[in-house]
Amino acid sequence: MEERRHHPRWQVNIPVKIKLQGAEAFSCGHLLDITLKGMRIAVDFTLPTDSLVTLCIGLSDDCFITIEGKAVWCRNVDILNIYGIIFKRISDYDKDKIFALVKEMHPKQIYNGECNGIICQKGGAQMEDLRIFERMPAQLAVRFIDLKENKEGDAQTLDISAKGMGLVTEQPLGPKTPLELWLKIPDRGEPLYMRGDVVWSKATEESKYRVGVNLEKADLMGLARVMRIA
């Protein structure tokens, strides 16, 4: 079920902290897009769809907004629940924070006009972001197995998201190469295990290779571990 919306959504694609009213602690989530009337979020917990909820959302370490809204649809993707939420109540002060976030993130991707008083992203609701989850810079050691050639290798991450990562390796890995990966996170925990496929690979001037990997499953819990040490 698609929600009917009259305002185009701004693609933001950022990891956020989310706390449902009454909860003791924040949970990790992902804010996919937002407008002053609603948003689309990905979380690994369940929200009620038959009643209003109050959410506190950390857009950054020092920027929080509080909204009262209702989830009008939900779609499951692997271990995640993606919700479309309509705002029923939000303060003007928090609207200003949303506008400031979008203006800072996409200054060159905004129309030179307004739609119903709202600056809208070029392409509006029709614009699709191929990268559902934003990558964040991270330099972490990775051990991997090339399942096609049955060979082990070492790499280092350049960036990472819940659904993909960029790597630097000393050996070529062709597109569609299936990989098993163990990400070494310096938090005294076990290496983070993942599976994925190489999407692209190109040689660098340093006789190494940059590789883009698409992960089989979106892992918000794993991303939360990375965020804590990044």
Task: Explain what the structure shows.
With 230 residues, the protein is mostly beta strands. It has 2 domains: 10-126, predicted glycosyltransferase like domains (Thrombin, subunit H); 136-229, predicted glycosyltransferase like domains (Thrombin, subunit H). Helices cover 10% and strands 47% of the residues. The strands form 2 sheets. Strands 1-2-3-6-5-4 form a 6-stranded antiparallel beta barrel. Strands 8-9-10-13-12-11 form a 6-stranded antiparallel beta barrel. Strand 12 and strand 13 (209-215) form a beta hairpin. The longest helix is centred in the middle third of the chain and has 14 residues, at 92-105. 29% of the residues are buried. The model is unreliable at 1-6 and 108-132 (pLDDT under 50).
List the keywords.
47% strand, 2 domains, mainly beta, 13 strands, 10% helix, disordered N terminus, 230 residues, Thrombin, subunit H
Taken from the alpha-carbon principal axes, the silhouette is elongated
User: Which CATH-level-2 architecture of the largest domain?
Assistant: Beta Barrel
* Biggest sheet statistics: 6 strands, antiparallel, barrel
CATH topology of the largest domain: Thrombin, subunit H
What is the count of distinct domains? 2
CATH homologous superfamily classification of the largest domain: predicted glycosyltransferase like domains
Rg measurement, Å: 19 Å
Q: Provide the structure class.
A: mainly beta
Low-confidence stretches: 1-6, 108-132
CATH class of the largest domain: Mainly Beta
Straight-line N-to-C gap: 37 Å
Q: Identify the strand order in the major beta sheet.
A: 1-2-3-6-5-4
Oligomer: single chain
Percentage of residues assigned to helices: 10-25%
Strand fraction equals over 45%
Annotation, overall tally of beta strands: 13
